[in-house]
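A quick aside before the break. I want you to see a complete sequence-to-structure record at least once, exactly as it would be stored in a machine-readable document. Don't worry about memorizing anything.
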Amino acid sequence: MKKILLLVCVLTTSAIFAQDCTIPATLPYFEDFSNGAPACWEYENTDGTNPVWTYNDSVDITGDGTNDPVVLMIPPNVSTEEKNDWAFTRKIQMDAGTEYSIEVAYNAFNLGNVTASENFELVITDAPSSTASYNEIIGTYTDFIQQGTFPGQNDGNDIKTQAYTASETFTPTTSGEYYVAIHALGSNGTDGGGFFLFSASVEETPVDCTIAVTVPYSEDFSNGTPVCWEYENTDGTNPVWTYNDSVDITGDGTNDPVVLMIPPNVSTEEKNDWAFTRKIQMDAGTEYSIEVAYNAFNLGNVTASENFELVITDAPSSTASYNEIIGTYTDFIQQGTFPGQNDGNDIKTQAYTASETFTPTTSGGYYVAIHALGSNGTDGGGFFLFNLSVEESIVPPCSVAATVPYYEDFSNGDPECWLKEDTDNTLPVWMYNTGTDIDGDGIGDPIYQIIAPGTQDPLKNDWAFSQKVHMEAGTTYYVSSHYNVVDLGSSTSFEDFEMWVTDAQSSNASFKELLNTYQGITQQGQFPGQSNGNDLEAMAYLAEEGFTPTTTGDYYVGIHATGSTAIGGAFLLFDVGVNTEPTAQDCTEAAVTPYYEDFSNGSPACWEYEDADNQNPVWAYNNTTDISGDGTNDPILIMAPANVSTTQKDDYAFSKKIQLIAGVEYIIEVAYNSLNLGNAVASENFDLIITDEPNATATQTVLGSYNDILQQGDFPGNNDGNDLESQAYTASEVFTPTTSGEYYVGVHALGTTGTDAGGLLLFDLGVSVNTVPSGGELIIIPTTGYVTSVNYNGTAAAGYNTEHFIWNGNGNFEVIGGVPPGNGIGGQTGISDDGNTVSAGYLNTVSGLVEMSTYEISTQTWTSLGGIGGDDGVEASSTYAISGDATTVVGLGYTEAGGPGGAHAVAWTEATGVVDLGSTVPQAFSRANATNVDGTVIAGWQDTATGFRQGAVWINGVQHLIDFPNGDKAGEAQTVSNDGVWVGGIGNFANNHQAWRWNEDTEIESLGPSPIQGYRGATTGLSEDGSIAVGYYKPGSLPAIFGVGFIWTEATGVVELNEYAATLGIDTQGVTLALPLDISADGTAIVGSGLDSNNNRVGFLLRLEPTILGVDEPTIEDTFSYYPNPVNDVLHFSGTTPLKSITIYTVTGQIVAQKAITSTKGELNISELANGIYIARIEGYESSKTVKIIKK
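That is the input. The structure line, written in tokens, reads:
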């Protein structure tokens, strides 16, 4: 009986302590074998031989007198080095997305005196088998040897205490049951050893809340209080955000986790508390979808109406530096019942979903915040959050527009986002083809093609549309495509197509702009190719056209195949591109000065060469030779004979076509050298010429002949400055065309003097206006404000800072009071041509309003001019300009009616008072900014119905709106020439933001692109006849003082004002002449504001001597006469008092003729001068006169 009871007791005890290995272990999991053989571990003897994994607790490893449990493998002898056995822990539950830390303590064990070098892998599996379906190696440990002594001496230096630790992490992508496996791989070499395991552990990796999680991120609170969330009790009172998992919300018998706010009672409706998620990594430019499931909760029978904001912040704080509200949710009430009845109508199942998107502009860690705002009315309620998620928005691949530059050469397969339209519903159709070897290199070439079924089928009406491409309004884009034709059989096909831009991939798109039509295209190159560069692709045509959208948006390039003239053929596309720079320069358009070519961008665009003697050598571009010796190749144009005996050369190199203006002197410079062949000394010769066509038979002007040119410098160079390029000669000549037009600079190689031939090298070529240094100067006007106006000849100026001021040529600076622009006050300071009257804003002490006013310098008296019956509470009218003769003041006045559009352009004269110039658009504003010499032509702007300020001109009181030729509206006008012929103003998208000038006959003219790419321009001042313009180009939305000033003439184009001053030899004293605001009518003075070397604003007057445009000076007595004008040969002149001299200048200031005079009359023969415009300055002993003359 006792034995039976003992057996029952043993069985009962075994039943109590036996582990159920079907149940996964919970975390943290730790096994150190101290409780015997590890429960539920499994071992696999994969190689079917000893050694095998064994549990052992019979050896004192540490030497402390007690045995130490271990799982080990010990081979039967030292020669058994092979191991291929697995030890699997018990099953462990792991959750997707959670990082787990796995550690194993291990060591090697030497047999006898042999040192073993062991190896193993740490592996995660989904079954206790080496062939498990899921098997991920998380760590490999090789060549480890015994660390510590065996047996131990109880001194801490034993193999258990000195054991290694394998430490790895694992993040499952799928929740489930996993095993940690130790896969023994055996010993290196021929000596086997033991492998001991002392412990294994698995636990969740502690969360570092400073590290941002990646998306997708989801939190449904099912794992307890959400990790790394933070809460802010901003109002310092209840309720506060709380985590709760003790309530069955749905009614299904299980509790539902929620983050919530419940007020203590129904009368507590206030909430101002924040819940912040953990930090989430988001990347700039990526759109993220953010969703929150939420609901309201009624207290008792009261219906609560809750409110909250969904916010993105860069810190878990309501005062974070970055705080963007992405959604506001108001007046939501409880949706569903509480408690739930397990019928799907509970407040969790019926929860609302807040769904928003967020696209960060900067990559970094962000937080999603829920800002509870409280209840509407007097009844408080609860606010429940059920889950929150953040993930990248799923964007359909073709819904996102490509950015520029865009290029498709079909090399990555049939482009997914292209569309082919079979418009005529018959063959042929566009097809993608990669199976034809076009160039003959043995590899198929990808193309788009449309091939007629036969030569008898010439008709085509099919479209191929590119991917969507994003383009900005006002930017010019260059749309390009390489294409060719294939003849079918022996027939010659003449194919046609059109290049379009559309706003949809459809021939019926609402927006379609035809860029060009290409007709009669024949096959160019061989088919099939012979891998010799003469195939259809290598010889393909290039279509390239400009497109300037007026509206920012997404566009498509459309290639419309329109068929053959008579015989059907194939039409091939090799690529399509969109860029802001042309692929190839348009050689039909002339370059403008300054023009410079140093060959650094490859073979010079639009140059042409003529082999006049039909033999070698010929002009060739070369960039494969290091001439200077600095380790980089130097680009050149060269003529190098094959040998020293080939002395003859008769070849031309012609530059690109260049636009030159009659009467303007240009300087043409070429850097060149000779090259010796071997030991021979070559003596080369060439002519520098100007032609009107790029060929040897064109009309030529020889500018200079260069003979007996010897090599100057070493070749090859030694990087010491004594090479052919550093020591190159410079050919420098001037040319003044008699007729405006297009010209070519030519270099005519004439061969070698003597019997030894050599090479002729060109390094660069430049053409620019020959600006002669003058006696001009920069005068700093002592103000940190703005110098806005200058009189006729630059002897007086006016402007404003905290008050209005005047300055005169004697250096006198005087503050005159008045109310300057700013703080709701409009206007500018103006000055009359004689420098005696100023126009500006001034406070009328009677009305208490600021009004347009004048200030007489001689009497130091202000006169208020009134308004047109209305005011804005501060001013009745504002002054923007005064006419040269001081009879007219223009600006803006508030109408008596007020309301929308209640301010109009106005003009004052003494006879009429202030006159309302009106508005041609109902309920829209207008303003007058400038006037000519007598007030008959006034310029400014007229608001459109959408509020766009369109340039406007009032000629004798009648408004004319300024448009571009395509109908786009010009920006506001800011200046008028004294003669009233020209108006200048602000550029906009319609002309790539270029400054412009306009007259009634020729309409609008863009002055030229910004000297700095992306800057936006305006014309602020015009000379007497509008032939000189000044203004600025500024960076985007920044103030113009941070831009660059410019001066423009027909001859020079847009030139930076600082650069122009430097060419005249003027010291700009470290000042950036950023904001020219006016130019004197005689062209001798430019005023404005700039930045000094410390970035402080300063006023300036840039005086130009001699004048670059001559007109009469009204401030002196007109005692001179001259005739005829235009003049053919002799110019006659006289004065009422004795004269000193007459000097003739080009329009850029170069003296071309001069004569001293000792009487009251004289004459000057200018028959030798080229036809064009000149400036004549007649000097007397008491006065002078500057006039414009025309030489015919």
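Two observations worth writing down. Residues 416-579 form a domain with the Jelly Rolls fold (CATH 2.60.120.200). The CA atoms of residues 265 and 1027 lie 81 Å apart. We'll return to this after the break.
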